[in-house]
Amino acid sequence: xxxxxxxxxxxxxxxxxxxxxxxxxxxxxxxxLDGFPSIGLINAIASGCFVHSLKNELxxxxxxxxxxxxxVIYNGTPNFPARIxxxxxxxxxxxxxxxxxxxxxxxxxxxxxxxxxxxxxxxxVISAAGMPTEISNSSAKKSKIQDxxxxxxxxxxxxxxxxxxxxxxxxxxxxxIPALLLNEGSWMNFDVIVLLTKVIKDVSDFRAAAAISxxxxxxxxxxxxxxxxxxxxxxxxxxxxxxxxxEQPNSGSNVYR
Length: 257
Description:
Blueprint: E1 5-9, E2 17-21, E3 31-33, H1 42-53, E4 57-63, E5 72-74, E6 77-79, E7 82-87, E8 92-97, H2 106-119, E9 124-133, H3 137-140, E10 148-152, H4 155-163, E11 167-168, H5 176-188, E12 191-200, H6 205-219, H7 227-246
Parallel strand pairs: 3-8, 3-9, 9-12, 10-11
Antiparallel strand pairs: 1-2, 2-4, 4-7, 5-6, 7-8, 10-12
């Protein structure tokens, strides 16, 4: 690995999040897909599916003194627990993380994502969140793919949803990192879309991630995710995420299936 170019994003009286650039890429006009787990694993699994399905390069890693001390081993190689992959041809970037962050870090992570997106001249950030529901497991199995809703930070982003024929949420709430991305995106007049799907009791998050992935492909026709293999991949991803969390001291208040 070549010497990394270091960009430190600092906030007064707050933890530094360091972005170590491995490779400069041209992502002008592109999209960043947020894969940081916050409330559930939906966006982490969906982002991981696109990384596995597309030809991507590792272009940066994120680090902070506030992050748990963790190295994630894949195929015998150590990895930082927060990474950025990119496909320069498709102008797509994917954030992948196994971190079990305390909720106090959500604000700084969301700011970092948006600042990195702006620095690389991206035009859109897509994230995802789950909506708890009382629907039973048996009822959920009647439909192959779950319903998707969405909310956008700007009028331009709302038009993207209309073009993709994705139903927009008229009222409700969003939590976690996706909520902060929406708020900050609205404040900055930067396009952020958060895709929402129901989180069903006793149903693995892969089901919701499959629905999210299909919605992403409607918004980004050049992106591809192997939905059929997502079930198998998700089982591995969920296992790795759970094992990583067992090694981290701060379990937070999140509950993962």
